[in-house]
Each structure stands twice: as C-alpha cells, then as structure tokens.
Design brief:
Elements (H helix, E strand, L loop, with lengths): L2 E12 L2 E12 L3 E5 L6 H8 L7 E6 L2 E2 L5 H7 L1 E4 L11 H10 L4 H14 L15 H13 L5 E5 L7 H14 L4 E5 L3 H7 L2 E6 L2 E7 H6 L1 H7 L6
Parallel strand pairs: 3-8, 3-9, 6-7, 7-8
Antiparallel strand pairs: 1-2, 1-4, 4-5, 9-10
Helix pairs in contact: 3-4, 3-5, 4-5, 6-7
The structure holds adenosine-5'-diphosphate and magnesium ion.
Magnesium ion binds next to helix 1.
Length: 238
C-alpha cells in the first residue's frame, strides 16, 4: 500500500499550551480517514499543521516519503493535496462555474477549465446551479461549491476540516454520501466533531485527546471503546 501523507512526532505549542503533542500517523492511497476527538483535543491545530497554515514546533510531515514540513498551503496544493478549511472562500458576485473555473486556470487553459469545472459541479450534484450568483445560494449549496473548487483539480488527497459545520441533518447525510462517492477517486482525511456524520462515513478512525492519539482503529471498535466514550463525555482517561 502506498503511503501518501504521514507525520512523525508532530507537535505544536502555543506558549505553554501543547495543542498537538507528538502525533505520528500515516494515510494510505485510497483511504477515507476520520480524525475525531472532543473539543480542545487538538484536531484543528493538527489540520492547520498538516495543511501548511501553521509551522509545527517539532516533528516532520512527509508527502509520498518527501519531507514537506513547513511548506505552505499553495505548495502542498501543487503536490496534489486539496484543502478545504472552515474559512469561507467564495465571492458572492461570481457564479459556481466562474469560481471553480478560476481555481483551475493556474493548471489549464480556458476551455479545459470550463470542461473540468462543469464535471466537478456535476459530480457534486450542483450542475444546475452553475450559472447562478453565489450570493443567492443557501449555506449547504455554498459548501458544495467550495468542495467543487477543492475537487476540480483532481488532488490525490483531500483534507477537510469539519465539512458539515452549519449543515442540517439532511444536508449532513447527503454530505456523507458525497464523501463516500468522492473517496472512489481520492484519498480523504476528514476532521470532524459530528459523531452522526462519522458513523455514516467511517472506516478507519483516529481519536485525538489532549493533543495525542488516544486510539486508531476501525470505526466499530472505536465507537465501542469505553475510553472513547469517556473522553466524549468529558471524563478523565486513565
Ligand atoms: N492559536 C492558539 N493559541 C493558543 N492556544 C490555542 C490556539 N489554537 C488552539 N489552542 C489550544 O490548543 C488546544 C487544541 O485546540 P484545537 O486544535 O482547536 O482543538 P479541537 O479542534 O480538537 O477542538 C486547546 O486547548 C486550545 O485552547
Ligand atoms: Mg476544531
């Protein structure tokens, strides 16, 4: 199995707070990995280190065996890592076709960008919204346009931070189906707090607690583990 992304002893400190504490993990080609954990576990900080928004205090990040520690998000995108943050990245005055097309123009000519933008919107089930103004779209639809911008360049790995934040239960279910569908072509890492969503998509799960990996296993075993239940309920773990 090819390892795409891995970390060794990844650590991020903010003053006296160690938000991520010596995390070693690896993501294989084709995987759909969920990173979960209670609030404050270090998930978002780990995501920001992994996606080049923070430079880790210690430890290493490898992409296909190459040390990429400290590279920024743009450099990682050029290597084939698609990143969806929780920060909105859309302009209300553009259409989905224009937005996704722009995301592709640094890689392709205009006609090819349009063709690929069309395909990405169709894959996400929002082809019919392609020419509408983004300012007129609902929150869930905007999330899908942002995902289309990440997917359109056909990255080898997609990393998503809380993709269902602010979505209704029905939108969350649809997002779970969609992520399983995208996983047929892309490896995916999902950082997520919503347990309902994780149950709907989960394969292999890594549980964070106090900046460290508490457990890593198949979803069924993770959800059955008393330590995981305890940290979600806020109980101390021995
Ligand atoms: N920019 C920051 N400055 C100081 N402390 C931070 C910062 N970001 C996160 N932390 C702290 O690091 C810990 C992990 O936070 P975070 O990564 O946001 O956890 P999660 O995403 O799992 O809820 C928390 O104790 C949080 O208060
Ligand atoms: Mg978070």
């Amino acid at each position: 199995m090819t390892t795409l992304l891995s970390t060794e002893g990844l650590t991020m400190r903010f003053g006296g707070v160690t938000a991520v504490d010596g995390v070693t993990l690896s993501i294989d080609a084709g995987e759909l990995r969920c990173l979960i954990g209670p609030n404050g576990a270090g998930k978002s900080t780990f995501f920001k280190c992994l996606t080049g928004q923070y430079k880790p205090s210690a430890g290493r990040i490898f992409w296909r065996g190459q040390d990429v520690t400290g590279r920024d998000s743009f450099a990682l995108a050029r290597l084939g890592i698609g990143i969806k943050t929780q920060v909105p990245s859309l302009f209300d005055g553009l259409t989905p076709m224009e937005s996704v097309g722009l995301a592709l123009r640094r890689l392709h000519g205009e006609a090819e960008s349009r063709r690929r933008a069309r395909r990405a919107l169709d894959r996400l089930g929002i082809g019919a919204l392609g020419e509408r103004r983004i300012g007129l779209l609902a929150h869930g639809q905007r999330q899908l346009v942002e995902l289309a911008m990440v997917v359109a360049p056909e990255p080898d790995l997609i990393i998503l931070d809380e993709p269902t934040a602010g979505m209704s239960a029905e939108e969350t279910n649809r997002a779970a189906d969609l992520i399983r569908e995208l996983n047929r072509e892309h490896a995916i890492v999902v950082v997520e707090h919503d347990m309902h969503f994780i149950r709907a998509i989960a394969r292999k799960v890594t549980v964070f607690h106090q900046g460290k990996v508490l457990m890593e296993d198949a979803a069924g075993r993770v959800f059955a583990d008393p330590r995981v239940r305890d940290v979600y309920l806020g109980k101390a773990v021995a």
